[in-house]
Amino acid sequence: MADSGLPAGWEVRHSNSKNLPYYFNPATKESHWEPPTDTDTEKLKLYMATHHTPAARNDVDGRSEGKIRCSHLLVKHRDSRRPSSWREAEITRSKEEAIEILKVHEQRIQSGETSLGDLAVSESDCSSARKKGDLGFFGHGEMQKEFEDAAFALQHGQVSGIVETASGVHLIQRVQ
Fold first, then answer.
1. pLDDT tens digit string along 71-82?
2. Is 74 helix (H, G, I), strand (E, B) or coil?
3. PpiC domain: from which residue to which, for each copy (predicted)?
4. Residues 6 or more apart whose Cβ sits within 8 Å of residue 115
5. Whole-model pTM above 0.70?
6. Do 74 and 95 contact (CB within 8 A), yes or no?
7. Which CATH number fits domain 11-57: 2.60.200.20, 2.60.60.30, 2.20.70.10, 1.10.10.410?
8. Would you please indicate which residues are annotated as catalytic (active-site) residues?
């Protein structure tokens, strides 16, 4: 793997909601929009130019080989990496409460009463809610591992069970 210039344990990921790269440490679950302290900025510039421009990411037209498209419904809890959202300035619910909320949503989707996208508009703690939870196209290494593993295991149109990540708990639907 190319040297990104980031300190040990850090990696570059891509935010689909903001369409920007960010810096993530899977061991500590820390994420930042700005490079972490002790980054070799010259190496990082080269790495970003090579690996994170639209042409390098192969998604100028919105999709590329090996990428999938998913929507999701996120319910955050007080132990989420950022326990706030467009819906609530401070999220105080427990992880167990978040899972119970998601189980109710899951039942409504499975029964055909509503769709994940329609629920996401009002119930998701992700900014993708305004797009019915649509995260756009992404490939391997662009999402949190638990999310990615669940998303790539889905068939077209299928909705996952509850998936836990550092961001909270999700229902994921593979769209393409």
1. 999 999 999 999
2. strand
3. 65-176
4. 109
5. no
6. no
7. 2.20.70.10
8. 72, 126, 144, 167, 170
